[in-house]
Specification:
heterodimer; A: 561 residues; alpha+beta; Beta Polymerase, domain 2; Cytochrome-c3 Hydrogenase, chain B; 3-stranded antiparallel beta sheet; 19 helices; B: 299 residues; mainly alpha
Amino acid sequence: MPSRDDIKKSLTDSFKGAIVKMEQPIDSRLFVDIHKEKVREISNAIVKMGGRYQVSIGYDNIARDKTLGLVHAFAFDRENLFLLLRTSAPADAPVFDSITPDIPNAGWSEREYQDLLGMKFTGHPKPKRLILADDWPAGVYPLRKEIPWNLMPPAAEDVAYQLDEAPAGCTTVPVGPFHPTLHEPAHFAVFVDGETIKGCDYRGFMTHRGIEKLCQTQVSYNEIPFIAERICGICGSVHATAYSQAAEMAFGMKISRRAEYIRTIMLEIERIHSHLLWLGVAGHLIGFDTVFMQAWRVREPVMWLGERITGNRKTYGMIVIGGVRRDITPEVKEDILNVIKKIETELMTIHKAIAGDSAIHKRTKGVGALTREQVIDWSLVGPVARARNVDIDARRDLPYAAYDDMKFSVPVVDTMDVWGTVVVRILETFEAISIIRQALDKMPNDGPILTPVTEEIPPLAHAISSIEAPRGESVHYIITGENENRPERWRVRAPTYPNLQGVPAMMMNNQLADVPIIIGSIDPCFSCTDRMMLVDMQSGKAKEVSGKELEELSRKLTTGR
Amino acid sequence: MEIAAIIINVTLFLALAPLFEGVIRKITARVQSRQGPPVYQPYLDLLKLLGKQNLVKGNWAFSAAPAIALASIITAIAFVPLGYKATFLTGYADVITVIYLLTLGGVAVLIGALASKNTYAVIGASREMITIIMVEPVLAMTFIMGAVKVKSLGLDASVFSIAVSGYSWSVAVMLAAFLLALQAFVARQPFDIAEAEVEILEGPFIEYSGPNYALFKYYMMLKQMFYAALFVTMFVPFLRTGYYFADLGIQLAEIFGVFVLISLIGSTNPRFRIDQAVRYYAALIVLSLAAVGLSVYGL
């Protein structure tokens, strides 16, 4: 693995003419501005050096220099380095070379900006519509600044997404848009020969509400953490922390160590919750409802604990820019220790039962197999990658909050299948328990839990932050606003976004009966991917709705009256 | 009295099958640390479904299938002795009749599923068909072993064969095969593959609702109790008093025991894939063939 300096040097040497400038606001963030002609070549060089593709960020810069900007983000996990490859193209001809042919995971990001910003990517293998509804008019690019946030083009009939052609001799089995395997709307068209899967097409983003657009135009910096938290019902703190960290980095501020410790504790409580929840769902998906019920019984105290610490069972509302909103008092600390002790004992029982259950092995071993190379090619993250012998974990590799003070191991197994993801997740839960204990033990007693923003916010500052969510790495990118008290651009990439792109490869040649657990094994969160939400932004106020009003409202919606 | 036995058989089954279903649900719930619905919940489910609008697909096969399924299982019940007392019909039937009737029920499910033309139903139907083909031989071998023992294909002769001959190696092997196949006979985990909620959304029954679905549900409950009763009658025939009603009571208690077993196995296993199940069924067929082979040599 090359060091940070080697990476810089190698890029400057090989692409002298193409690089406009390099910036390194802090040691772990390297921004490289390049001419767009070389984007594919340089991206490939970065991947060759060991860079892992994370996400692309497209933004509208027309007001300033009549261009559309594009950032490809890469991470060097061993070096704790984010490499941001920035380029731009004139708005009247926003054509870039596609990097998807070599880096398949960029496929969705590029399709996203094709839909939302009107960019074109030459050489993209599947330039179909990804995010916009099928009846959205062509030529209207909602993420451009000239398009108002509340534009509602008239709905059109008789338009539908054209699914990929099924391979010869195969029938198409629809899994979705509504299907008990999926707890949210998404559509997998699975092509089967008998019961063997020969391919699959995906159409998702059915609940896309444009949360990024909303936050770029309607709210202020301090409100976004609460909206970010509602991107996902399970990893709310993850998104709030990722956003807050990115913002703090862009502002150039530091928060107190105690606040970082509390963030760490919240993130790990969330991980315990998420993994227990997943274990239950996975049990249900292979038709083993006893695992489902027992895992959720064990999960219950975590939600009690959430309420004890924050007042909410889930969607804690704890994390804001500058720190956290509530302190952990000695009494709460006592409760946390008791609850995790109980969970640890009960989870050990479950772990033993599952590890020795040959029937579960039958349903998960060898299912959804991928090779290590495929995982790296597809830039998959989280337990999905770690179950296939790819040793990455943002907590250790790209440390944030108080993780640099924690001692923990990153469970990695080489079974290459769904069973591996079960093992990894259970072991990670034990690690999470140990991290919480360490954090409570080492937490400094002084320091404000909330540091106010006092300095002027620098305009158009770029910052990126990633968090190891229970499902994998979650990446947030921010460009600060110029005159308004809100980001110019905020890009969210939840872990399901890359992992879902790897699902077709996992399904190949498996049985139809394995579809639920394969999709389930990435712990999919379509709402994260779609970035949806339900907040009344017009008044900007939280309104209490009584049960009766809610009932009337839903009746009105159903009957259209 | 023998005609009364038919009425008693059918009435007991119709009255108690939902109760035993409720027992399964209750035990499963307890294993899963849940409260569970009251044991009489399945009666309420049936009543509720019967009171709903009947949505039909518009072809006669779709509408007829549930009735055929229910009729076939009730007929089978009328033939098979309960409380160690042959009914009026038992003497008129041989083992082939019962196998036919049971297969007819499965075929009715298939017809209903195929008539509904739903993708999931068709997948469910193909899985159901595989299950029928692979599991029915175990049932057939059970009867044939009995027939070999008493040298008669008559239903009563075959069913009471173990009561007459006592346990032997062949009976032990067949008992094992029957127990291993029990979850598949009653379509419970790990062999509820044809219904598989999270994969194919109850498969063959996806398009059914209201009274039609109630008939199918009732059919499934009766079938479940039928196999439990058959197991008890054939393999555990020794707890008997000679008094008809006392025997009925004992046998129902034994059936209850079988249901406890079914729910415990069902709640501690995930669902198998059809390809895994097929390998399992194939082993069962070999096992049951071995039992018949042993019985031919008088073992």
